[in-house]
Every structure is written in C-alpha cells, then in structure tokens.
Specification:
This is MFS general substrate transporter. Helix content is 73%, strand content 0%. By secondary structure, the protein is an all-alpha fold.
Length: 503
Amino acid sequence: MTAAKELKGLYDDASDGDNVQQIDPVYHAKARVLNTAIQEIGMGRYQYYLFICAGFGWFADSVWPLITGLILTPVIAEFKFNAPFLSLAANIGLLVGALVWGLGADVWGRKWSFNITLLIAGVFGLAAGGSPNFVALASLLAVVGVGVGGNLPIDSAVFLDLVPASHQYLLTVMSVWWSLGQLLISLLAWPLIANFSCASSASTCSKSDNMGWRYLLFTLGALTLILASIRFFIFRLLESPRYLVGIGEDQKAVDVIHQIAAYNSTTTSLSLEDLTGVEKLTQDNTEIRPLLSKTSIFTMTHIKALFMTRKMAISTSLLIALWGIIGLASTLYNSFLPFLLASRGAQFNDGSLYLTYRNQVILSVIGIPGAFLAGWAVELPYIGRKGTLSISSGLTGAFLFASTSARSSVQLLGWNCGYVFFSNIMYGVLYAISPEIFPAKDRGTGNALVSTATRVFGVIAPVIALSANLATAVPVYISGGLIFLAALLALFLPFEPRGKASM
C-alpha cells in the first residue's frame, strides 16, 4: 500500500471527505490509510468482542436512566417527595457525564474513559440502594449519572474507530443492548417491586416493608460492576489509531493496527511510511496548514472543527437540535412511564404494581426486534440513515398521540408497544448517525455536544413535569409533538453516511 495509491483508493469519497479535507487534509488522508488497513484486516474476533464490551455502555445507558421511573412509585411512598425531583437529579448527573467524558475523549483518549465510566456507575449505584432518605438517593443517582453519561459518547467513538467500514451498520444494531437492558431491568423490577413494596393503600411506608427498590439497585449496581470488571480485566481496549494520528503519534497508530491484526489471526501491510508518505504528499499538494493537535490540553480546536465549513456547521447544529428535542421528549415520557401506566391503569381499575411492571416487561420485549430492523433499514438505498431516522421518529410520535385515546389498560399497552418498537429504531439510528458523521479526531467532542444537548433537555423535562399534571395526557402530547418535529429535521441533515467510511 503506497501513499499515492491510498489517496486514489476506496475511501476517496468517504464521509463527504471533500468537506472534511478542507478542514484538515493531512488528518483526512491518514484516516483513509487507516480505514483501508482496518478494512484489510476485516471484521474479526477483536471487533466482535468490542461489540459486546461497547454494548455494555448501551446497556448502562438504558437501565440507569430508566431506574428513576421504575422505582418512583415505591420511593415516593417511603420518602414523600415531588416525583420529578428524582429524575431531575439523575439527569443533572447525566449532563455532567456527557460533557466531561465526551470532551475528554479527544484530550486524554478513549481508553481510560471507556474503563472508568462503568466503574463509577456500579459503585455509586450499589451505594444508592442503602440511601436513608431522598436527598441521599438523589445525590447518589446523580453521581451514577456522571458515569453513565459518558458511555454513549465514548463507546460509539471507540467502536467506529476500530470497525471496518463494511460493518459500520453494527453501530445501529448495537442498540439491541439498549433493548436488552430495558428487558432485564423490567424483569428484575417486576417481582422485586411488586412483591417487596408497601401496599398502595398503606398510610405509612417503612423501610422494612419497602425493600424492593433497594434490592433492584443492589442488583443493578453489582451487575454494572461485573461488566466494568470484564472491560478492565478481561477485554483489553486498544487506543483509537485515528485519535493517535490526530495527536501526531503515527507509530503508535501503526502498532495498534498490527496488534488488532494479530488478535484476529491475520496480517496487515500498513507501515509507518504509509502514514508519513501521505503527510508529505498532502503537504506538497496543498497550502492548508494541518491542524493536528500536539497537546493533551483541551482547547476550542475540536469544537471549531465541527463548525469549520457551512455544511459541517449545519450538520452539527441539526444533530444537536435532534438530540436535544428527542432527549426532552423521551425523558418526559420514559422517566414517568411506569408512573403513567399505574395512574392511568388506576383509572381503568387495573393499576396494580403487578400489572404495571408486567406491562413494562412486555414493552421491553417488543423493543428488541427494533434494533435488528434498524440495522437492516439504514443500509437500504434511498432511505439510509436519514430516511430511517425520519420515518421511525414520525411513527413514534404517531403512536404516542394514539396512546391518549386508550380507554382500557389493554389499549394503552397496545399503543405503547408500537411506541416502544419504533422509538428503539429511532434511538438506534440517532446514536449511530452522529458519530459516523463526526471526524474521528473530533468525534469525542461532537458526541459530547449532542449528548450534552439531550442531557440538558433531560434536565428540563422534570421541570416541565413539575408544572404539568402527570395524571393527564399533557406530557404525552408534548412528547409526541417534539418527536414529530425531530422527524422533520432529520430530512434536512446534509450528510448521509450510508455506504461511506467514517473518518
């Protein structure tokens, strides 16, 4: 493989490279060399293990934000507080985590962030189970959010940096871990909360009569620590080669590629000369000075790169808007779904904890096939990522509105099944399209911006809920309208990553 050949190779049009090349031609050229090397290695054992371990982050991002809704009813019975405050505390932590870990990924690299985020969530999640009062519970869940909030920005960047272009669609399929997390936490909550919670008719609720939500936190915290241990002690994450060339560590990037090849029992022809040759050729043919970062100190360079051209600025702005809008809608609805199911079920005379959490399990099962359908749909010609995101968002909003017409708990469950199925497709595409569009050297920062947007609006959602009547359809109408807006905005994204290698 030669530098000249690579510049005319398979990835000449990758990820709208002409636009990226205007920003940093040296990095862009080196990224294409790395893409070819990773494609040459192919999808092997290392990438499949990475799919599993990165999926742990999707799992954590599913179960921990949902936990506030699942434990809400018994916790209110014991601690007597205004419901949205618990979600508010958790979402503040998620906001801090998304910002710190996402930006940090482009400063100190992906490796340590990948390992630490789950550890924080597990330790403080376990401690939350012993909370003596609401303030302690809210504070501990906020710290859990700091860890959990970094998972999606880091894990999506790590996976895209190390997977062949031919298998980038697996980032969309990775949302199956999100669905499995929903299913597992619902299966755990059903028996624990239904059997170890105060009776709804009880005038007082003591700790000894209300241990179900604590058992749930203990179990989930321990499970998260096990997943963190697998990441730290069993699977060895290699630093992103694209991040390494972004900070001028070409030799280390080459070493990583060769280590992946050896792990997959194959070989690669990549050498240091391929990268240095590309750099010389690029500099000889352009007057643009490369912007490769040489320091580990955070500057505004990574943020400016995402707005450097008009097309990139429109793309980044629309992605931030999409994540913010969907984050507000989903938090407003999902965080209070068990509470809504119970309160609406009470109106239908079947709002017991048993039925509420049984229905939550059914909804979780329905979401699993959505992840696989999303992985298929994003590769369809003429539809791709943008079309799948828009269609699934529109159908999600439609089922949300339809749920307000339910006149029985069975009808409510049916409409929510449609909502969960299409919303899981929507989330799967949203979580994948953003890191695919952002250049790898700025991907952590880009992921931080969009994740921060969804967490900021996640904080706003409980504030809205504080002034809205959760026993009415108001949160549902707001959520549905916002998701319809997201469906429209998705059509205006200027980049379509289908069939192109991420840079």
